[in-house]
Design goal:
Structural class: alpha/beta
CATH topology of the largest domain: Aspartate Aminotransferase, domain 2
Oligomer: single chain
Bound molecules: pyridoxal-5'-phosphate
Helix content: 40-55%
CATH superfamily of the largest domain: Type I PLP-dependent aspartate aminotransferase-like (Major domain)
Number of strands: 13
Order of helices and strands: HEHHEHEHEHEHEEEHHHEEHEEEH
Strand order of the largest sheet: 2-8-7-6-5-3-4
Radius of gyration: 20 Å
């Protein structure tokens, strides 16, 4: 990312296929709500758990999207799901607790866990596991206090079926450990809609965000749904650690729920971009993984390299395409993989495919 930014600053062309954020603005309804809030609402500190209308609206969203009833009192508004993870880890675990994570992973999971004094316990989930954590994989581990499951996942885009989500919820309940379900890519799915862990239990921690489907990453706003017994500890942690989430962003988020027609049009662009890449990459000898959801293709480039970092550096230098090396997500086998984000506009993806094709033909 730093090299891509330098290239951009030097006036050279760069195609940002490494970024994990939508290239679109937040929905117009969110921007209008933010402007209205600045003009008319109190935008001081809010309740640490979030403004009431937003917590109510998020609860209603669970009925609309999943037909699942959630008590608004269990909803906690956070400054992005990143802060949600920090708070969830602090509220649910004790120092030195062991948290299971599958490899490849979203790098902040183990990094946040370590920073919070927890021990990440990594278990490999290869292609035959659809790159997803499972009860079988966790049975190979000892003494874990919880695990993170993500569907759709970053970097692989792979998803858990509703039965698999239910299986993980049962596993957590049976073992009396915490399931933390990262649902931040819900709404960006291509085969079947993603199922929330809340459909199977109230005793899970669910994280979600306005950064991906809602296209509002810079507003730093997300939410958690937690069991009632975590609400009081979370309120106290939040009050002391950061008082409240940004008030203007909370009002904007409330407006975002009225902008789903615009947001669904963004997803249509992802559908096209994904198809362009899925058609083109295999012809170049690059093998895409599942890409069931999110806006990433995690692809096997072992035909060309086992050093994805150098490979991505060369691609950037020669073509202006910024792509993420797999070692960011898998320190052991990520040398054979790259992650391409297709959250940008359709013309960027078309140009990227053409440049990558020429690069590979000459290398
Ligand atoms: C899997 C996953 N979880 C969580 C996050 C954090 O996002 P935010 O803090 O913007 O909600 C990201 C961001 O890329 C992500 O990919």
């Amino acid at each position: 990312m730093a090299t891509a930014a330098l290239r951009h600053a030097a006036g050279e062309d760069v195609f940002r296929l490494e970024v994990g954020q939508p290239g679109t603005p937040g929905p117009a309804t969110a921007l209008e709500a933010a402007k209205r809030a600045i003009d008319t609402d109190l935008v001081g500190y809010t309740d640490p758990l979030g403004i009431e209308p937003l917590r109510n609206r998020i609860a209603q969203f669970y009925t609309e999207r999943y037909d699942v009833k959630v008590d608004p009192a269990r909803i906690v508004v956070t400054a992005g799901s990143s802060v949600g993870f920090i708070l969830a880890f602090l509220a649910a675990f004790e120092k030195n607790d062991r948290i299971a994570l599958s490899i490849p992973f979203y790098p902040p999971y183990p990094n946040i866990a370590k920073t919070m004094g927890l021990q990440p316990v990594l278990v490999r989930a290869n292609e035959e596991h659809r790159f997803q954590i499972s009860p079988d994989l966790m049975n190979t581990l000892e003494n874990i206090s919880g695990f993170v499951a993500a569907s759709p996942a970053n970097p692989t885009g792979s998803m858990l079926s509703p039965d698999e989500v239910a299986g993980l919820v049962d596993y957590a309940e049976g073992k009396k450990i915490w399931m933390i379900s990262d649902e931040i890519y819900h709404g960006i799915t291509f085969a079947q809609p993603a199922q929330t862990a809340l459909a199977f239990s109230d005793d899970v921690i669910v994280l979600n965000s306005f950064s991906k489907y809602f296209s509002m990453p810079g507003w730093r706003i997300g939410w958690m749904v937690v069991p009632g017994r975590l609400i009081d500890p979370l309120r106290r942690l939040m009050q002391n650690l950061y008082i409240s989430t940004h008030a203007v962003s909370q009002f904007a988020a409330l407006g975002a729920f009225e902008g789903t027609a615009e947001l669904d049009r963004n997803v249509e662009v992802y559908v096209q971009n994904r198809q362009v890449l899925l058609d083109a990459l295999p012809k170049m000898g690059i093998k895409p993984a599942f890409a069931d959801g999110a806006f990433y293709i995690y692809a096997d480039v072992s035909k060309y390299t086992n050093d994805s970092k150098k490979f991505c550096e060369r691609i950037l230098a020669d073509t202006g395409l910024a792509i993420t090396p797999g070692i960011d997500f898998d320190p052991q086998q990520g040398g054979n993989f790259i992650r391409i984000s297709y959250a940008g506009p359709a013309d960027t993806i078309a140009e990227a495919v053409s440049r990558l094709g020429k690069f590979l033909a000459n290398n």
